[in-house]
Write a structure and sequence with these properties.
This protein is mostly helical and 361 residues long. The radius of gyration is 31 Å and the shape is elongated. The termini are far apart. The N terminus is likely disordered.
Length: 361
Protein backbone atom coordinates (compact mmCIF):
# COMPACT_ATOMS: atom_id res chain seq x y z
CA UNK A 1 0.00 0.00 0.00
CA UNK A 2 2.81 2.37 0.87
CA UNK A 3 4.51 1.68 -2.47
CA UNK A 4 1.28 2.36 -4.37
CA UNK A 5 0.87 5.63 -2.48
CA UNK A 6 4.43 6.62 -3.35
CA UNK A 7 3.79 5.95 -7.05
CA UNK A 8 0.60 7.95 -6.90
CA UNK A 9 2.35 10.89 -5.27
CA UNK A 10 5.08 10.75 -7.88
CA UNK A 11 2.62 10.77 -10.75
CA UNK A 12 0.65 13.65 -9.27
CA UNK A 13 3.61 15.71 -8.13
CA UNK A 14 5.63 15.08 -11.31
CA UNK A 15 3.02 14.75 -14.07
CA UNK A 16 5.64 15.11 -16.81
CA UNK A 17 7.69 12.24 -15.41
CA UNK A 18 4.61 10.10 -15.12
CA UNK A 19 3.62 10.66 -18.73
CA UNK A 20 7.17 9.95 -19.83
CA UNK A 21 7.17 6.69 -17.92
CA UNK A 22 3.86 5.66 -19.50
CA UNK A 23 5.20 6.62 -22.91
CA UNK A 24 8.30 4.50 -22.43
CA UNK A 25 6.19 1.52 -21.41
CA UNK A 26 3.98 1.99 -24.47
CA UNK A 27 7.04 2.27 -26.70
CA UNK A 28 8.94 -0.78 -25.43
CA UNK A 29 6.00 -3.18 -25.07
CA UNK A 30 5.58 -3.80 -28.82
CA UNK A 31 9.35 -4.09 -29.17
CA UNK A 32 9.45 -6.75 -26.49
CA UNK A 33 6.62 -8.62 -28.23
CA UNK A 34 8.51 -8.39 -31.51
CA UNK A 35 11.65 -9.72 -29.89
CA UNK A 36 9.70 -12.57 -28.34
CA UNK A 37 8.22 -13.43 -31.75
CA UNK A 38 11.58 -13.02 -33.45
CA UNK A 39 13.20 -15.70 -31.40
CA UNK A 40 10.08 -17.71 -30.59
CA UNK A 41 11.29 -20.47 -32.90
CA UNK A 42 13.65 -21.45 -30.14
CA UNK A 43 10.82 -21.50 -27.64
CA UNK A 44 12.31 -18.87 -25.35
CA UNK A 45 12.79 -15.12 -25.07
CA UNK A 46 16.18 -13.54 -25.69
CA UNK A 47 16.72 -10.40 -23.69
CA UNK A 48 18.39 -7.27 -25.03
CA UNK A 49 21.41 -8.04 -22.86
CA UNK A 50 21.75 -11.53 -24.31
CA UNK A 51 21.34 -10.19 -27.83
CA UNK A 52 24.02 -7.58 -27.22
CA UNK A 53 26.36 -10.40 -26.22
CA UNK A 54 25.48 -12.32 -29.38
CA UNK A 55 26.25 -9.20 -31.37
CA UNK A 56 29.75 -9.14 -29.87
CA UNK A 57 31.83 -12.31 -29.57
CA UNK A 58 29.37 -14.56 -31.42
CA UNK A 59 29.35 -12.16 -34.37
CA UNK A 60 33.11 -11.69 -34.47
CA UNK A 61 33.36 -13.78 -37.65
CA UNK A 62 31.65 -10.92 -39.51
CA UNK A 63 33.57 -7.76 -40.44
CA UNK A 64 32.69 -5.05 -37.92
CA UNK A 65 30.93 -2.70 -40.39
CA UNK A 66 28.54 -5.49 -41.43
CA UNK A 67 27.38 -6.67 -38.01
CA UNK A 68 23.62 -6.14 -37.61
CA UNK A 69 22.46 -3.94 -34.75
CA UNK A 70 20.03 -4.79 -31.96
CA UNK A 71 17.34 -2.87 -33.80
CA UNK A 72 17.95 -4.94 -36.94
CA UNK A 73 17.29 -8.15 -35.02
CA UNK A 74 14.13 -6.65 -33.56
CA UNK A 75 12.87 -5.58 -36.98
CA UNK A 76 13.67 -8.77 -38.87
CA UNK A 77 12.80 -11.97 -36.98
CA UNK A 78 14.75 -14.33 -39.23
CA UNK A 79 17.98 -12.31 -39.15
CA UNK A 80 19.48 -14.57 -36.49
CA UNK A 81 18.97 -17.53 -38.84
CA UNK A 82 20.57 -15.59 -41.69
CA UNK A 83 23.61 -14.93 -39.52
CA UNK A 84 23.80 -18.64 -38.75
CA UNK A 85 23.77 -19.45 -42.46
CA UNK A 86 26.57 -16.95 -43.05
CA UNK A 87 28.59 -18.45 -40.21
CA UNK A 88 28.20 -21.84 -41.94
CA UNK A 89 29.27 -20.25 -45.27
CA UNK A 90 25.91 -21.21 -46.80
CA UNK A 91 25.93 -18.07 -48.91
CA UNK A 92 23.17 -19.02 -51.35
CA UNK A 93 20.70 -19.85 -48.59
CA UNK A 94 21.58 -16.65 -46.73
CA UNK A 95 21.03 -14.58 -49.87
CA UNK A 96 17.67 -16.19 -50.59
CA UNK A 97 16.53 -15.76 -46.99
CA UNK A 98 17.50 -12.09 -46.96
CA UNK A 99 15.70 -11.48 -50.25
CA UNK A 100 12.54 -13.10 -48.86
CA UNK A 101 12.68 -11.29 -45.52
CA UNK A 102 13.21 -7.90 -47.13
CA UNK A 103 9.81 -8.15 -48.84
CA UNK A 104 8.16 -8.25 -45.41
CA UNK A 105 10.35 -6.37 -42.98
CA UNK A 106 11.94 -2.96 -43.03
CA UNK A 107 15.73 -3.10 -43.43
CA UNK A 108 18.63 -0.84 -42.51
CA UNK A 109 21.96 0.16 -44.02
CA UNK A 110 23.61 -2.68 -42.12
CA UNK A 111 21.23 -5.34 -43.43
CA UNK A 112 21.41 -4.01 -46.99
CA UNK A 113 25.20 -4.00 -46.85
CA UNK A 114 25.23 -7.49 -45.36
CA UNK A 115 23.00 -8.66 -48.21
CA UNK A 116 25.31 -7.06 -50.77
CA UNK A 117 28.34 -8.70 -49.16
CA UNK A 118 26.65 -12.11 -49.24
CA UNK A 119 25.84 -11.60 -52.93
CA UNK A 120 29.51 -10.90 -53.61
CA UNK A 121 30.35 -14.30 -52.13
CA UNK A 122 28.17 -16.03 -54.74
CA UNK A 123 29.49 -13.88 -57.60
CA UNK A 124 26.33 -11.81 -58.05
CA UNK A 125 28.56 -8.78 -58.27
CA UNK A 126 26.40 -6.47 -60.37
CA UNK A 127 23.40 -6.77 -58.05
CA UNK A 128 25.62 -6.44 -54.98
CA UNK A 129 27.32 -3.27 -56.22
CA UNK A 130 24.02 -1.64 -57.19
CA UNK A 131 22.65 -2.36 -53.74
CA UNK A 132 25.74 -1.07 -51.92
CA UNK A 133 26.08 2.02 -54.12
CA UNK A 134 22.44 2.97 -53.52
CA UNK A 135 22.98 2.79 -49.75
CA UNK A 136 26.14 4.91 -49.93
CA UNK A 137 24.40 7.51 -52.09
CA UNK A 138 21.09 7.79 -50.24
CA UNK A 139 21.25 6.31 -46.75
CA UNK A 140 22.94 6.65 -43.38
CA UNK A 141 25.14 5.28 -42.03
CA UNK A 142 27.23 4.87 -45.16
CA UNK A 143 30.03 2.85 -43.54
CA UNK A 144 28.56 -0.68 -43.98
CA UNK A 145 27.96 -0.34 -47.72
CA UNK A 146 31.21 1.61 -48.21
CA UNK A 147 32.99 -1.36 -46.70
CA UNK A 148 31.37 -3.72 -49.24
CA UNK A 149 32.47 -1.48 -52.12
CA UNK A 150 35.98 -1.27 -50.63
CA UNK A 151 36.26 -5.05 -50.43
CA UNK A 152 35.11 -5.41 -54.03
CA UNK A 153 37.65 -2.83 -55.24
CA UNK A 154 40.44 -4.47 -53.25
CA UNK A 155 39.65 -7.94 -54.59
CA UNK A 156 39.74 -6.56 -58.15
CA UNK A 157 43.16 -5.05 -57.45
CA UNK A 158 41.91 -1.46 -57.58
CA UNK A 159 43.56 -0.48 -54.30
CA UNK A 160 43.50 3.26 -55.01
CA UNK A 161 39.69 3.15 -55.30
CA UNK A 162 39.34 0.93 -52.24
CA UNK A 163 41.22 3.14 -49.79
CA UNK A 164 38.83 6.14 -49.63
CA UNK A 165 35.90 3.73 -49.24
CA UNK A 166 37.71 2.07 -46.36
CA UNK A 167 38.16 5.53 -44.83
CA UNK A 168 34.37 5.97 -44.78
CA UNK A 169 33.96 2.64 -43.01
CA UNK A 170 36.72 3.50 -40.55
CA UNK A 171 34.85 6.58 -39.33
CA UNK A 172 32.30 4.33 -37.65
CA UNK A 173 34.86 1.79 -36.43
CA UNK A 174 38.09 3.73 -35.78
CA UNK A 175 39.59 1.08 -33.50
CA UNK A 176 38.62 -2.08 -35.36
CA UNK A 177 41.75 -4.16 -35.89
CA UNK A 178 40.41 -6.07 -38.89
CA UNK A 179 39.55 -2.87 -40.72
CA UNK A 180 42.87 -1.20 -39.91
CA UNK A 181 44.75 -4.30 -41.04
CA UNK A 182 42.91 -4.48 -44.38
CA UNK A 183 43.49 -0.78 -44.94
CA UNK A 184 47.22 -1.01 -44.19
CA UNK A 185 47.69 -3.74 -46.79
CA UNK A 186 45.52 -1.83 -49.26
CA UNK A 187 47.51 1.38 -48.75
CA UNK A 188 50.80 -0.45 -49.37
CA UNK A 189 49.46 -2.11 -52.51
CA UNK A 190 48.29 1.26 -53.85
CA UNK A 191 51.77 2.75 -53.45
CA UNK A 192 50.95 4.72 -50.30
CA UNK A 193 53.65 3.22 -48.09
CA UNK A 194 53.72 6.10 -45.60
CA UNK A 195 49.96 5.79 -45.07
CA UNK A 196 50.40 2.06 -44.60
CA UNK A 197 52.84 2.70 -41.75
CA UNK A 198 50.45 5.20 -40.14
CA UNK A 199 47.66 2.62 -40.25
CA UNK A 200 49.93 -0.04 -38.78
CA UNK A 201 50.79 2.40 -35.98
CA UNK A 202 47.07 2.76 -35.24
CA UNK A 203 46.63 -1.01 -35.41
CA UNK A 204 49.46 -1.53 -32.94
CA UNK A 205 47.53 0.46 -30.33
CA UNK A 206 44.56 -1.95 -30.38
CA UNK A 207 46.12 -5.26 -31.45
CA UNK A 208 49.67 -6.68 -31.50
CA UNK A 209 51.15 -6.77 -34.99
CA UNK A 210 51.27 -10.23 -36.53
CA UNK A 211 54.29 -11.52 -38.46
CA UNK A 212 52.43 -10.64 -41.66
CA UNK A 213 51.86 -7.09 -40.38
CA UNK A 214 55.53 -6.75 -39.41
CA UNK A 215 56.62 -8.00 -42.83
CA UNK A 216 54.36 -5.42 -44.46
CA UNK A 217 55.85 -2.71 -42.25
CA UNK A 218 59.39 -3.77 -43.17
CA UNK A 219 58.56 -3.72 -46.88
CA UNK A 220 56.98 -0.27 -46.56
CA UNK A 221 60.10 1.00 -44.79
CA UNK A 222 62.32 -0.47 -47.53
CA UNK A 223 60.25 1.27 -50.21
CA UNK A 224 60.68 4.52 -48.28
CA UNK A 225 64.44 3.80 -48.09
CA UNK A 226 64.39 3.52 -44.32
CA UNK A 227 66.64 0.50 -44.45
CA UNK A 228 67.95 0.55 -40.88
CA UNK A 229 64.44 0.51 -39.43
CA UNK A 230 63.44 -2.25 -41.83
CA UNK A 231 66.44 -4.40 -40.87
CA UNK A 232 65.48 -4.16 -37.20
CA UNK A 233 62.07 -5.61 -38.05
CA UNK A 234 63.60 -8.32 -40.25
CA UNK A 235 65.87 -9.24 -37.36
CA UNK A 236 62.88 -9.61 -35.05
CA UNK A 237 61.05 -11.73 -37.62
CA UNK A 238 64.07 -13.99 -38.09
CA UNK A 239 64.12 -14.72 -34.35
CA UNK A 240 60.49 -15.81 -34.55
CA UNK A 241 60.99 -17.79 -37.78
CA UNK A 242 64.59 -19.01 -37.97
CA UNK A 243 65.51 -20.55 -41.29
CA UNK A 244 62.75 -18.80 -43.23
CA UNK A 245 64.43 -18.54 -46.65
CA UNK A 246 62.08 -15.91 -48.11
CA UNK A 247 62.52 -13.73 -45.03
CA UNK A 248 66.30 -14.07 -45.06
CA UNK A 249 66.41 -13.15 -48.75
CA UNK A 250 64.26 -10.04 -48.19
CA UNK A 251 66.55 -9.02 -45.35
CA UNK A 252 69.59 -9.57 -47.59
CA UNK A 253 68.08 -7.43 -50.33
CA UNK A 254 67.31 -4.74 -47.76
CA UNK A 255 70.88 -4.83 -46.42
CA UNK A 256 72.28 -4.53 -49.96
CA UNK A 257 69.98 -1.59 -50.75
CA UNK A 258 71.13 0.06 -47.51
CA UNK A 259 74.81 -0.36 -48.49
CA UNK A 260 75.43 -2.89 -45.72
CA UNK A 261 77.25 -5.24 -48.07
CA UNK A 262 78.88 -7.45 -45.45
CA UNK A 263 75.50 -8.07 -43.82
CA UNK A 264 73.92 -8.75 -47.22
CA UNK A 265 76.65 -11.28 -48.02
CA UNK A 266 76.12 -13.02 -44.68
CA UNK A 267 72.35 -13.22 -45.13
CA UNK A 268 72.54 -14.42 -48.74
CA UNK A 269 75.13 -17.06 -47.83
CA UNK A 270 72.69 -18.31 -45.21
CA UNK A 271 69.99 -18.52 -47.88
CA UNK A 272 72.21 -20.45 -50.30
CA UNK A 273 73.12 -22.92 -47.55
CA UNK A 274 69.44 -23.54 -46.81
CA UNK A 275 68.33 -23.42 -50.45
CA UNK A 276 71.28 -23.99 -52.84
CA UNK A 277 68.98 -23.74 -55.88
CA UNK A 278 67.86 -20.18 -55.09
CA UNK A 279 69.03 -18.18 -58.12
CA UNK A 280 67.87 -14.86 -56.69
CA UNK A 281 69.97 -15.32 -53.56
CA UNK A 282 73.07 -16.03 -55.68
CA UNK A 283 72.37 -12.90 -57.73
CA UNK A 284 72.06 -10.65 -54.66
CA UNK A 285 75.17 -12.31 -53.23
CA UNK A 286 76.99 -11.43 -56.45
CA UNK A 287 75.85 -7.80 -56.33
CA UNK A 288 76.90 -7.44 -52.69
CA UNK A 289 80.25 -9.14 -53.34
CA UNK A 290 80.95 -6.84 -56.28
CA UNK A 291 80.14 -3.80 -54.15
CA UNK A 292 82.32 -5.24 -51.37
CA UNK A 293 85.23 -5.31 -53.88
CA UNK A 294 85.27 -9.10 -54.16
CA UNK A 295 85.13 -9.61 -57.95
CA UNK A 296 86.01 -13.30 -57.74
CA UNK A 297 83.18 -13.96 -55.31
CA UNK A 298 80.81 -11.89 -57.43
CA UNK A 299 81.73 -13.76 -60.63
CA UNK A 300 81.18 -17.10 -58.94
CA UNK A 301 77.79 -16.00 -57.58
CA UNK A 302 76.57 -14.59 -60.92
CA UNK A 303 77.74 -17.71 -62.76
CA UNK A 304 75.90 -19.94 -60.29
CA UNK A 305 72.72 -17.86 -60.70
CA UNK A 306 72.93 -18.35 -64.48
CA UNK A 307 73.52 -22.09 -64.08
CA UNK A 308 70.32 -22.31 -62.10
CA UNK A 309 68.40 -19.95 -64.37
CA UNK A 310 70.05 -19.59 -67.81
CA UNK A 311 67.63 -16.86 -68.95
CA UNK A 312 68.27 -14.74 -65.82
CA UNK A 313 68.62 -11.37 -67.54
CA UNK A 314 69.86 -9.36 -64.51
CA UNK A 315 72.50 -11.92 -63.61
CA UNK A 316 73.76 -12.15 -67.21
CA UNK A 317 74.04 -8.39 -67.51
CA UNK A 318 75.71 -8.05 -64.10
CA UNK A 319 78.27 -10.71 -65.00
CA UNK A 320 79.05 -9.00 -68.33
CA UNK A 321 79.53 -5.63 -66.62
CA UNK A 322 81.76 -7.20 -63.95
CA UNK A 323 83.95 -8.89 -66.57
CA UNK A 324 84.19 -5.84 -68.83
CA UNK A 325 85.19 -3.65 -65.86
CA UNK A 326 88.15 -6.01 -65.37
CA UNK A 327 89.09 -5.71 -69.04
CA UNK A 328 87.78 -9.21 -69.84
CA UNK A 329 85.80 -8.10 -72.89
CA UNK A 330 85.82 -11.46 -74.68
CA UNK A 331 84.49 -13.21 -71.59
CA UNK A 332 81.80 -10.53 -71.18
CA UNK A 333 80.85 -10.92 -74.84
CA UNK A 334 80.63 -14.70 -74.43
CA UNK A 335 78.36 -14.32 -71.39
CA UNK A 336 75.94 -12.08 -73.29
CA UNK A 337 75.99 -14.33 -76.35
CA UNK A 338 75.10 -17.26 -74.15
CA UNK A 339 72.23 -15.22 -72.70
CA UNK A 340 70.96 -14.27 -76.17
CA UNK A 341 70.58 -17.95 -77.06
CA UNK A 342 68.00 -18.46 -74.32
CA UNK A 343 64.24 -18.38 -75.04
CA UNK A 344 63.86 -14.67 -74.25
CA UNK A 345 61.01 -12.36 -75.14
CA UNK A 346 61.57 -9.97 -78.04
CA UNK A 347 61.90 -7.09 -75.57
CA UNK A 348 64.55 -8.89 -73.50
CA UNK A 349 66.40 -10.05 -76.58
CA UNK A 350 66.57 -6.44 -77.76
CA UNK A 351 68.08 -5.48 -74.39
CA UNK A 352 70.80 -8.14 -74.70
CA UNK A 353 71.60 -7.00 -78.24
CA UNK A 354 71.96 -3.46 -76.93
CA UNK A 355 74.45 -4.61 -74.28
CA UNK A 356 76.44 -6.48 -76.94
CA UNK A 357 76.57 -3.32 -79.05
CA UNK A 358 77.88 -1.38 -76.05
CA UNK A 359 80.74 -3.89 -75.67
CA UNK A 360 81.65 -3.55 -79.34
CA UNK A 361 81.77 0.24 -78.98
Amino acid sequence: MEMKASRSRLLHSRPTWGLAALALVSFFAPACQTMSHAFGERGDFISAQELAQTQGPEMSFLPAPLRPTLRDFARMPALSNVVGLIRAADWSSAAMRLTAEKTTYRTSSHVEALHAWVLLQINERETALKMATFVVDYHEPKSPAAYVLAVDSRERGDFAAALPLYQIALKSHPRDSGLLREMAHCAFSSGQEAESIVLLDRLMVVDPLSSEDLTLRARALVTLRRYEAALLIYGRLQKDSPGDVALLLEAGQCAFAGNQYDKAISLCNEVTQLDPQNAEAHFVLGMASASFLDPAGAEAAFSRALELKPDYLKAGHALAVLLSNQGMIDEAYAALNQLSRQPLSSVDLEKVQGWLNELED
